[in-house]
Amino acid sequence: MNENLTALLPETTLLGAAVIGLLTGSWLPRSRQWTIALLAAAACTAGLVATAVTMATAREQTVFSDAFAVDVATDMGRLIVLAALLLIIGMSVEPVRGHQRETEYWVLLLMTGAGTLTLIGANDLLMLFAAYLLASIPAYALAGFAKDASGTEAALKYYLMGALLGTTMLAGIALLYGAGHATLYRELNTNLPAASYGLVAVGLVGVLAGLLFKIGAVPAQYWVPDVTDGAPTPVAAYVTTLPKVGGLIAGYRLLHQAMPGTDVNWPLLLAILAAVTMTLGNLAAFFQSSVKRLLAYSTISQVGYLLMALAAATRSDLAQKSLLFYLAAYAATNLGAFAVVTELPHARTLQAYRGLAHRHPGLAAVLVVCLLGLVGTPPTGVFLGKLQIFSAAVDGDYTWLAVLAIANTVASLFYYLRWLAPLFATTAPAPVSTQAVQGRWTATTAYAAGTISVVLGLAGGAVLPLTTGTLLH
């Protein structure tokens, strides 16, 4: 049995920082609780360094009775999550500074980040569910952090949906255990082909229900717009980004490692879910006037594109690298857009951004890059990610799905342009909503995220090789 704790250094670093931060913050004066933010950033940086060392030394392994796998998907997922956490910390500094529960905010963020990292490497159904809980419960508290009416409603909806689909997920795990007499993916891969078709099918649907909730896909997407709109903007940036990374990589690992030999036609199920999710997200975003709700429906449509890689998980060699690269590009691009929204706290509608290019040209440039990036416009990273994921769908014999995805991509340009057009309006003075800005930390985060989005597109040839490799059983 491999019990190498150093293999889990990024996860344990976040959890250790959360414990230290909670204990330290309990006696620090309110004016000095910003030091916990430094601790959180240091923990993320240490995790990035540990991941880079693991990738450089090619130390792929499974640990603790093979329940957790450290391989290419885990390493890339760690890089995405930890870098995204740093960006979220950057855009949270000014909104949270001086808050009476500032320490708790950073601690909750570290804990749910650790849960997301655990989802990425989970190689056992019980580990998967434990990670689901660790990633979800702190996020419920973060959604209601402001303790206002909209935040409380958001947290309640988030919790109720999570509890319902978490219970469904646990029931699915029980059924898969009954069918395969194991929870480890490697053993399920061996045992499930001989098990009852109905038992395996229902169990898999139950487990997928929990993961679909995490990523905000149909039919578990109802919480996304309300939570995004009601939660503080940095928290909205978190819930529309990091759970997608954890849930999609976890789903890919489950399907690729445990389900390839079963008779259940799960690739078709995932293809249909991808088609419905991307289409519904785009249609719902068309006439949104709230910037946060528009980004919420945008993230639903992006999840639809990402699900295409799961549908092709065992049918195309391009599926894994397209998923990992697209997740990296999407995380940077989505966080860049949310950083601009955070920087302009009083600009809540599309028209409130009128004249932004004249008042804050740097922020307008970031917003243009990120919104056109979400469409899939070159030279941003999402363009290359979409190109890869569409190729994976075609290679996996889902040409119809790729065609639908292209049609949805073209259609999505409509609602992104509805936001971009007012930025350059000169017929009327800029509204007061664009005059007040959050501060330099949030602006710097926006510039950094926008830059990463473009760099991933330009340097995609150097990044894509990092996403190739074999998943460990």
Describe the structure.
This protein is mainly α and 473 residues long. It has a domain at 304-473. Helices cover 72% and strands 1% of the residues. It is built from 20 helices and two strands. The protein has helices spanning 9-25, 34-57, 72-96, 102-121, 125-143, 149-180, 185-191, 197-215, 223-230, 233-239, 242-258, 266-285, 291-311, 319-343, 356-359, 361-375, 381-395, 399-420, 440-458, 460-463, and strands spanning 61-63, 68-70. A two-stranded antiparallel ribbon has the order 1-2. Strand 1 (61-63) and strand 2 (68-70) form a beta hairpin. Helix 16 (361-375) packs antiparallel against helix 18. The longest helix has 32 residues, at 149-180. The chain is globular. The relative contact order is 0.11. The mean pLDDT is 92.
Sequence of strands across the biggest β-sheet: 1-2
Mean pLDDT: 92
The share of residues in extended strands comes to under 5%
- Ranges with pLDDT <50 over ≥5 residues? none
Number of strands: 2
Secondary-structure class: mainly alpha
What's the helical proportion of residues?
A: over 70%
Shape: globular
Number of helical segments with 4 or more residues: 20
Distance between the termini: 14 Å
SSE string: HHEEHHHHHHHHHHHHHHHHHH
Largest sheet: 2 strands, antiparallel
Integer-rounded radius of gyration: 21 Å
Question: How would you describe this structure in keywords?
Answer:
473 residues, two-stranded antiparallel ribbon, 2 strands, 72% helix, 1% strand
